[in-house]
Write a structure and sequence with these properties.
three-stranded antiparallel beta sheet, two-stranded antiparallel sheet, 12% helix, mainly beta, single chain
């Protein structure tokens, strides 16, 4: 399971794909960088984390919790998704982990349940 993280260095934001790995010495999970994706400033549509969180009301879009929130790509970058605001949503760590690299959408017009596409 990997996640996209943003790291700020000298006021520039950089995207990295990271995964959680077990460190036997510390007996804790740690994040390991898998690959560097690029600078957010280099993207045509600049994505601001705060804007996505505000748009989604600081709420997980799958379960509704307001704790342990992350940004996630609806269509993963590995499956051709883009790093644009319409492809990003707020998920809690639990939902993001269980989603994996699947593509989910909220079927809000019918039942509000999630469907896999």
């Amino acid at each position: 399971m990997s996640f996209i993280r943003v790291k700020v260095i000298d006021e520039r934001r950089y995207l990295y794909e990271v995964k959680s790995v077990w460190n036997p010495k510390t007996q804790k999970n740690q994040q390991k960088v898998i690959r560097y994706i690029g600078s957010l400033e280099d993207c045509g549509d600049r994505v601001k984390r705060k804007d996505i969180f505000e748009r989604d009301n600081y709420t997980c879009q799958l379960c509704g919790t307001k704790e342990n929130l992350t940004l996630d790509h609806k269509t993963p970058l590995a499956k051709g998704g883009e790093h644009i605001d319409s492809n990003l949503w707020v998920l809690c760590v639990r939902c993001n982990t269980s989603k994996g690299k699947r593509i989910l959408e909220i079927n809000s017009t019918l039942t509000g349940e999630t469907i896999e596409t």
